[in-house]
Fold this sequence. Notes:
Helix content is 52%, strand content 16%.
Amino acid sequence: xxxxxxxxxxxxxxxxxxxxxxxxxxxxxxxxxxxxxxxxxxxxxxxxxxxxxxxxxxxxxxxxxxxxxxxxxxxxxxxxxxxxxxxxxxxxxxxxxxxxxxxxxxxxxxxxxxxxxxxxxxxxxxxxxxxxxxxxxxxxxxxxxxxxxxxxxxxxxxxxxxxxxxxxxxxxxxxxxxxxxxxxxxxxxxxx
Length: 192
């Protein structure tokens, strides 16, 4: 069959116009100019982003604790009101109760912002949380556990904010060793 017979009447063959010759150098220059403009635009955008990030970080550092400070001011108001009251034997119990309530309010405010005390008394010593100030023989707490807490440890979300200062229980030594130890100590100190 003939190719022309395959054509539909709606399809008209348009002759191909002469291709326009493009100078490859000018095409590359045009593409270079376009890419350079895109690069300069992206560079300016990134520079603005960097400046905004620095400002946001600075503002976050400067004003980040604002909500915590406002919460602490409420506790401070309660504390100042309690301190302005005249304490006498008749109102001593209510004054102590007010101080206890203020302490609870302070702890509640800190907990709202992620600051929590870490329970330590009677717990096993953890050098990641506690700082050992010393040790003592204890029958009430197993060896390696905490017998006294001088400063509570606090956690801020998942991070230790302040290490606790504690005394650790140690096992009682045998009686023969203790007597020998006591005699040695007496000689060092100068007792007879």
